[in-house]
Amino acid sequence: MNFRNYLLFPVAAVLCASTIRVGAEDPAPGLERFYIGTYSGAIFKSTLNLGTGTFGARTTAVTVGSPSFLALTPDRKFLYAVNESGGTVGAFSVNPTNGELKLLNQLSTKGGSPAHIVVDKSGRNVIVANYGGGSVTVFPILSDGQVGASTAYMKHPGSGPLAHCTTLDASDHFAFVCDKGLDQVRSYIFDSAAGTLVPNDPPFVAVARGSGPRHMTFDPQFKRAYVICELSSTIIGFDYDPAKGVLTPFQTVSTLASGVSASGNTTAEIVVHPSGKFLYGSNRGKNTIAVFTVNADDGMLTPVQQQPTGATPRNFAIDPTGQYCIVAGQGSNDIRLYTINPLDGLLSDTGNKLSVSAPVCIVPFILQPPQPILSARALESNTFELSIGNSLDILTYQLFQSTEAFSTANWNLLATGTPGQTKFLLTNTLPSEFFRVGVLPNY
What we know:
Blueprint: E1 5-10, H1 11-14, E2 19-22, E3 31-38, E4 42-49, E5 54-55, E6 59-63, E7 67-72, E8 78-83, E9 88-94, E10 101-108, E11 112-119, E12 125-132, E13 135-140, E14 152-155, E15 163-168, E16 174-179, E17 184-191, E18 196-206, E19 213-218, E20 224-229, E21 234-241, E22 246-254, E23 266-272, E24 278-284, E25 288-294, E26 301-308, E27 313-318, E28 324-329, E29 334-340, E30 347-355, E31 359-368, E32 373-380, E33 383-389, E34 396-402, E35 412-416, E36 423-427, E37 434-442
Antiparallel strand pairs: 1-37, 2-32, 3-4, 3-31, 4-5, 4-6, 7-8, 8-9, 9-10, 11-12, 12-13, 13-14, 15-16, 16-17, 17-18, 19-20, 20-21, 21-22, 23-24, 24-25, 25-26, 27-28, 28-29, 29-30, 32-33, 33-36, 34-35, 34-37
């Protein structure tokens, strides 16, 4: 096992009320990788140092078509991209060492200008929203990572449908599709095992005429959903019934500052912070990220900031730790980095940016978690407390025990924490003189 750190201490010492700590003086702060979908004929990649808040070099992951929106499988072994100009979905294998991508296959999405793609939580299927003609297509993920022949295709009815985004609920049982042309959020019953879609009852929730719903996101508890409307520069909050897959609107709020006209502005992306306390939406034209606080009791949004960005912030991502906001400026041809204040959600420009031609989508993930700092403290009898420092709330830590002081083998699972748990109560039952425990973050 490749532990990020381990603690080796004399049992007698820790049980004599001393505290023992092990770890580097300057522990590794953690590293993220992110992929960048573009309109410039390539998928790029870079890294983000979580300690210094700096980008690594921007390099080409693969050269291919017009790979706008991207999605990774949960195990990060495969990446999928829609090619808007070619009307295809492409499957790529991920080199775990350097992050480079290899094209596995491409298939028609059965619709024009595919605008969005998502991988279900089981990693079994990809779902594509076809902007041109307004349709949704499901493709199974084969054992080798390729996309197989489509298992579902739903064409939206009516005049001028424009499917823009698919969002899955917590159980992968309901799929919601924002249709900008119909001013509807359409609801489907999704079977991830069979890869099928069936219209829900009711089949959609309507929004104000001319709003142009574009993207939708859930809060971390999946109690509420938020839809950003491209044409009206508004965000609509919905209460969510997970049993029936029904959305009920409770608030509509502007993405612009009070008194600012929506003329010349269109919105693009919407993201809820991992803490659930803040919400962010991008304004193209006014070129800002709108920041809102989220009321924990009722989900109501309160505007708190308009953070200037580069030109045409088409897409942005909150990194998995919740520390940074990474913004793709399609018009300014750059990626810019902003810190997030954990108390109020406000953004601050770090000044760090990457040059990328026509960026459209950003997909970040943890490449290396921060190096944990371990300490042990005696409590009573043979019981002691093991604490993990330099940790992340989003990680789940596992402790493994070895009776051999210097062997790299023979590790036995000792405890599995809950997400964010950093303190463990342990009892020594070993006759050995030394107690050895290793920590393994799951991410």
